[in-house]
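Quick board copy: two proteins, each given as sequence then tokens.
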Amino acid sequence: MKLVKSLLLGSAAGLAVVGGAQAADLPVKKAVPIEYVRVCTAYGAGFFYIPGTDTCLRVSGRARAEYGYIGSDNRDIPGGGDLSGFTGLARFNFDARTQTGYGTLRAFLRLDAASRTGNTKYSSGTNLRGAYAFSGTGQDQLGRIQNFINVDKAFVQFAGLTAGRASSFFDFYAHDFEIIGSSLGSDLPSTNLLAYTKKFGEGWSVTLSMEDPNYRKNPIYSDAAGSTGLVPGQAGLNNVFTTAPTPIILGTNGVGNATAVAFVDAVQRSRLPDFVGSLRYDAAWGSAQFSAAVKDINTGGFIAGSSIGVPGTGAALAGNTATALAARGINAGAQTEYGWAVQGGMKFNLPFIAPGDGLYLQGAYGEGASFYTGINRFTAGYLSNASVYAGNPFNQYLSDAIVNPLTGRIELSNSFTAVASYLHYWSPEWRSAFYASYGEIWFSQGARQAVSQANAAVGAASTVAPPSYLTNAVGYNLSPALRDTYQVVTGASLIWSPVKDLDIGVEGQYIKTGVKNGRVSDSDKGAFVSNIPTRTVSSEDVFQARFRVQRDF
């Protein structure tokens, strides 16, 4: 037994030695080191290093729900009667930064997506016309359900350069304190641009920016043809013109009435970028900014074969359009004018009233630049004229320019806005904003009268005439077309933030629009007798409210 035991122990020891030697000869697979996500403290809270790089990234977002009401209770007029609206919005932000020998290299991305339903201040026509949204096509959903998607930001910043999709450098206040965000004033959060910013000492900076013109063009006035109405069962894009015809008078009779007209292509092409400059100052007390912009306004030539004449007047027709124009000293070719705008604003930090309090003051003036002054902020964008609410008494006219039917020349509109907005913290959890804004827009009166003359010829010679009250002097004097108007938008809010990054708030807003002089026909309740309106108004007003729940992370 002792011998057997010794043999077994010896064999086991030998095998262990041999096995150990063989194991030592085999390659050993080492575990891959785990690279943990590291916090990046160079750019503030929330940044972390992308593994394997020296780039810091912050991922954030937002969820928002809104419920609204507007006092548009006229169900008798087609298109009127929508009172309520709903919005659900999702936002995703990605902010990537890398430190280089030239300073910080930054790329910022923001994507907004939303579902909007209900009244026209929710399912926004401006967003639809500006390619931010697409509309439902059901009979009850057309113009009332929109899905909204927008590449809100996608820009690179490097050594003073900003390139990509970003907020316009013209803007200053841009509704910082508001929920609804429709007080009068410029606010273009998404445009394509190429800009350079130079920072000087003591808080001064200057920016020169070349910006996409398409997001700041409001149409040239044309009353010769209206937008095709949205038809149930069709997509909401059938109100777009390849050419928007506006008439030029070819001939008149002895009393000055137009006997023939031809039509010029008034759709503005994308020819030049808008040029924007801003001078900004930032300090502990607040900030100030002066901005200026210049933009082109262009028309094409006359539309071939578009001349019409009043029967029986010996009017000039298509064959002699050029001759008739030359006789009146009108160039039949394309033309360009230049609109411009200036804006000044100041923000005051008011911690001595309450921590977080602030006051904005801002004013803007422009010619041919309604998007820059923001006079169309509440009413509408990308429209020659628009309603304050569906089924309202009259439309406000917002065109950047008119082609004068008598001279054939582009004549610019004029507009200005002013806004004051104050944010007050009642306590760290409760705050309110109070704001008021006022604006005016006015047009060439000579061009307006010439439009009446042209409409008379169009009405007499076409199968689809303009409203007959536009073609007689008394009726046209009561038309809202190209009237000088004013608008007031004012409101207040109350917001509760029970925990960090959560807002629960409500805002109420009052809007009034009126003509500067005289009265206009009431399309809501009025009628016409012998082409003269039986009811007129000088102003209209409406109230809306909005409730919001929003979580940022």
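And the next:
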Amino acid sequence: MNKGKTLMTGAVIFMCGSMLAACGKSQGAAVKQNLNWMTSAEIITMDPSKVTDTTSFQQIENTTEGLYQLGKDSVPVKGLAKKTTVSKDGLTWTFDIRKGTKWSNGETVTAKDFVYSWKRTVDPKTASQYSYIFSGIKNADKVVAGKKKADTLGVKAVGKYKLKVTLEHKIPYFKLLMAFPVFFPENQTAIEKYGSKYGTSSKTTVYNGPFVQKGWTGSNLSWTMVKNKDYWNAKAVKLQTIHFAVEKSPSTAYNLYQDGKLDTASLSSQASKNLQKSPEYVVRKANGTTYFQFNLKQKKFQSTKMRQAISMALDRDALAKTLGGGYTGSKNFTAAGMTKVNGKDFTDLSQTKESLLVTGHHKKLAQSYFKEGLKELGLKKLSFTVITADDDTSKSIGEYFQSAMESTFGKQIDVKVQSLPTKSQFAKMDSGNFEATISGWNADFADPISFLDCMTSTNGYNSGKWTNKTYDKLVAESKTTSDSSQRMKLLEKAENTLLVDQGITPLIQTGSAWMLKSKVKGLIYNGSYYFEHVYIEK
């Protein structure tokens, strides 16, 4: 399960290349442009200010459009932004918005929709877990902290179709942020009409993207996207419908795929091994990390030695091999292969002998640290329950974790695993009503800060409430330095601090094996799927 979503990961792209438009027209007319798709988790919300999960993000970015969208290789391309102007000092961004674009309730999309959206998200009353990502925009931090009113945020509409944004300091990845759904516009009329029910069903949500959503009641496991005839670039949209079904079991999904009822299917470990030579076999690599998180409000996890012992009891490569597909063992929170620093991977630069020790598999050392941890905590035995999502992969990770703990620490530990629907797991994490969890984070854009920001002491995604003043300082300093080299050094130190202290315990880097019908063309994958250019070939 992934809390949050990956926008900027090593993209797996399925394109027709430079002939996309031509082959889309000639081939697409001969067949029905209907797609049958699956996800492994249910939608939680369609509200851009409150979204946190991968499935919901994917739905929003296909039914709502912002200033930019992500194209091939995660490169931001203009969406509603017809023209972008940046001041010489990099602190003022001006976006000219396309005229005549509409919401599904008939209203025109204007600059005020962005102003309303951004101010609503940073307003503490909204309780958005993504309000932190606005940091760097003038007054954002103070608004989020409740020290200033949302109206003071550095964003304003200049007329009907011009948006002006003022920054406190340069943000190297600002254009990438503009392609992230949290920065998408929101229709004030609809939100005020539906109140707290906005985004809780298809009927209580409005859209301005390539598709509109139909049939989601707020709890059901199937729904449909339908081509939006009022979308400004509707001529480029070939698909008429996309039928979605939540399939948490890879074996069930593959059976449906074989029967022609799904055009894609995630694969189990064994199936991925058996089907590797199939021309329809695809490995999805993502800048995502699955990790074990302690609830540090619980005294039993407040010993660093105990957390390090748990980490050293885990054989991450063995876990990845068990899961199969594209999973790899991970010794970092930040995903490997995402960011290069002078030709070297960021994750390699952030590791030290100490961090590599505590993230390595060392059974005897783990047992020694565990005994010290018990002594520090005044315990004779450690007992706790781990919550996971209820899809097959998450269950398998939970089972592996439980087995590793028991085989390493024997009767000194008692681990129970509870699998819950994604929405229920998130609710427990958000309220702090858990002892430990196996969760995940997918980068929102291709920069280590997308990971590391999440574990600062005041961040809403820091469900375990890990606190480290040195870490907070390093992350804060990285946001204000104008020296890109110094910025990366600060982030490297922050990553290492997190690993050594085991604020979270990284397990695997996200990747999965899928089947994809060869007739499906034009699909873009940047950690989630974008369907605007997809068509079905005969």
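Board note added afterward: The longest helix spans residues 392-409.
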